[in-house]
Every structure is written in structure tokens, then in C-alpha cells.
Specification:
It is built from eight helices and eleven strands. The chain is α/β, with parallel strands linked by helices and 252 residues long. It has one domain: Metallo-beta-lactamase, Chain A. The strands form two sheets. The chain has a six-stranded mixed β-sheet with strand order 1-2-3-4-5-6. Strands 7-8-9-10-11 form a five-stranded mixed β-sheet, with helices on one face. The structure holds zinc ion (ZN).
Length: 252
């Protein structure tokens, strides 16, 4: 069995473009997560939205809408639905690596009951601190569900063979991390929200809540990791999904 990488979209953000570093006007951007098949276990990088957000009347969605942000999602877009289409039992997912604890990245954890959550210590500590939760919008409802948690500090080789490596990329949140996957499909750096979309590499239009100096250094470090054929997959880039998706979401 070789390593395979899939990219799945779990709903969208509808918001003013300025918050996502995009041109003025309202935008709809995808909420991706990733499935990595490795001989030693299926791993997800992030897991999309909570199933309850399929209901427009969900209290968290209502709160987001009051801040001019909505996150519509359909049941067939949830992590569990994508996994079932890939013939993967959600109960058999071994690891969920979280880039960070925002609701659009950690929300699907409740669908993955037996996975070990892999997260940077700094991020988990922020999620345990009431003041940091408020400041960075890290609602406990989505990530504090009693999973086994493997805390890491800095770079980490998940399976010890160099195929799936984790790289700290702090700034968006205190302990944000990115993932590199070397598979039969090539070399991919799953940037996460260290950079929302390709254009931000130039503009450095980072979100208002973030630590911009730290984000700038993190993005530079990720860019420096690139080889000649590395594909950077950004956090919420409409140009990388849809009909010309940068990664397959299904077996072909
Ligand atoms: Zn995000």
C-alpha cells in the first residue's frame, strides 16, 4: 500500500472578502480537509465542520451570522460522508492532525471517535485557557471531546518514515501547524490557515485577529521548504478547489 492523499471540501465560508485577504465584496470560500492513507493508519489533516452546523438555526452559526460570517454545509460534505465515499470507516481513523482549534478545522472531531488528536502543545494550551479561547475564538464545544491527545512541540515525523511531517507555522493561532505529505502523487505542503490563498503570499494580507509578524515568518519558513515540484495547498483558496481541484476527493 502506498501513501495516498485526498482533498475534501466541507462547506464554505460566506463573508466579506476583506476578512479573508481578498478583494472587496462578499466571497464564498471552501473549507477543505485532507485524508492521508498510510500503511500504518488513516490520518486526517483537519476535519471540517460539526454536523450540527448543517442546521442554519444552530446557535453557533447564528452567532457567526451576527458577525457577518456564515458557514453553510450539507450533510454529504461532512468528514464522515467523505470517508464513507472513500470506503474508510470513520471509526478506524487513527490520527487527526489539527492545524489549529478553529471550528472550521476541528469541528468534525465528533465524527472520528477513536482517533488520536495530534496537535502542537501551544495550541492545546491556548484551548485550555479561557482568555486565549476568547481572544482567538477557540470554542471548546468542538475539540474538547475526550479523545486521546498526542501533544507535540515543533517538527514531528508522524510515522517515522518521512511521508507525513508536521511543521509549526504559528501566528494565525498560537500553535498553528502545517503538514507535508510525500506520496505517489508528489510533494504537497498543506499550508492550513498559515496562508488563506495563493495571492496572500505576495500581499501578506493576514486576518485581523492574527499576529502578523509571526505569520510572516511562518509563511517564509514554509515557502523555504519548497522543492522544484512542491505543491502548496492553501487554507481557503477558491482557485484550488471546484472543477480544477488540486487534489482528488475520490478514488479514480
Ligand atoms: Zn480556517
Amino acid at each position: 500500500m502506498t501513501v495516498r492523499l485526498f482533498g475534501c471540501v466541507c462547506g464554505q465560508f460566506h463573508s466579506p472578502g476583506s476578512g479573508l485577504g481578498m478583494d472587496i465584496g462578499r466571497v464564498a470560500v471552501p473549507i477543505p480537509f485532507y485524508v492521508i492513507e498510510h500503511p500504518d493508519g488513516v490520518t486526517l489533516f483537519d476535519c471540517g465542520l460539526h454536523a450540527e452546523l448543517c442546521d442554519p438555526a444552530d446557535p453557533y452559526r447564528e452567532r457567526l451570522r451576527s458577525q457577518d460570517l456564515d458557514s453553510p454545509v450539507e450533510p454529504h460534505e461532512l468528514a464522515s460522508a467523505h470517508l464513507e465515499r472513500l470506503d474508510i470507516d470513520p471509526g478506524k481513523v487513527r490520527y487527526v492532525v489539527l492545524s489549529h482549534l478553529h471550528f472550521d478545522h476541528a469541528g468534525g472531531l465528533h465524527q472520528l471517535p477513536n482517533a488520536t488528536v495530534v496537535v502542537q502543545s501551544r495550541e492545546w494550551a491556548a484551548g485550555a485557557d479561557a482568555e486565549m479561547r476568547r481572544r482567538y475564538a477557540l470554542p471548546r464545544r468542538f475539540f474538547d471531546l475526550g479523545h486521546d491527545v498526542k501533544l507535540i512541540d515543533g517538527e514531528h515525523d508522524l510515522f517515522g518514515d518521512g511521508a507525513v511531517t508536521l511543521h509549526p507555522s504559528f501566528g494565525h493561532t498560537p500553535g498553528h501547524q502545517s503538514m507535508r505529505v510525500r506520496s505517489g502523487q508528489g510533494d504537497h505542503i498543506l499550508v492550513g490557515d498559515a496562508c488563506y490563498r495563493a495571492g496572500v503570499v505576495e500581499t501578506r494580507a493576514f486576518p485581523a485577529h492574527a499576529d502578523h509578524a509571526v505569520m510572516g515568518r511562518s509563511l517564509d519558513a514554509l515557502l523555504a521548504m519548497r522543492g522544484s515540484d512542491t505543491v502548496m495547498v492553501f487554507g481557503h483558496d477558491p482557485g484550488q478547489w471546484g472543477p480544477n481541484a488540486v487534489l482528488p476527493s475520490a478514488r479514480t
